[in-house]
Amino acid sequence: MSRLLGVNAVGDLASIAPQAIERVFITAQAGPQETQLAERLRDKGIEVQLVAASALQERAGGRGGASIGADIVVARPRGLEAWKAEAGEQRVLLALDQVTDPHNLGAILRTAAAFDVGAIIVPRNGSAALTDAAVRASAGAAALVPIERVTNLSRAIRDLETNGFWSCAITGEATQGIWDLDYRKMSWVFVLGAEGGGLRPGVAKACGMSARIEGGGRLTTLNVGIATAVTLGEARRQHAIVG
User: Global pTM?
Assistant: First the structure.
């Protein structure tokens, strides 16, 4: 069970997926917006508890002053077989290699939910855990986008390719840009690594193609969360063109 904090994050999740909220915590210092949200959720049959402000602050690692929080159920993984069966439905998946920062993972989850990504695939070892920090950074998206943990990321990518997905490594060494690819009417798995280590050679080799983000500015590298957003934004734009 993970806890989400703040009226905006709890309110957004309540609007999209109230079934993911187990219980709500509210402090005596809560304002009208928080109180109204708690009452709305109580009317939906969700348990609401009055707690001390220090209890929420402690759960936030001593930071912030949220007066409402919620215990949420994170999205359940479906397994690669389920995604392979949906390759003909223009699915978009992400694969992350060596992304060990939970805040990066949370931010990518939030972006993934915004761009309708089906799941995030990570290696079982050497990846960030879905900690409370990651859940908070996801702003509730951890309840919407499952994380699929696999023993061998390279093998998982090749397996998806064999079953109808196109795979693309996002790397600065690529000879073509992400805007040169045609994302329409296909299912994709985009593969990104953390800045610094980047993609391991075996993971990059497993991908059917590679592409780079061409910014044209003085800096040539992007945080993995920003690179994910740019990539997904272009894929979504092209998918929207064909309806």
Answer: 0.87
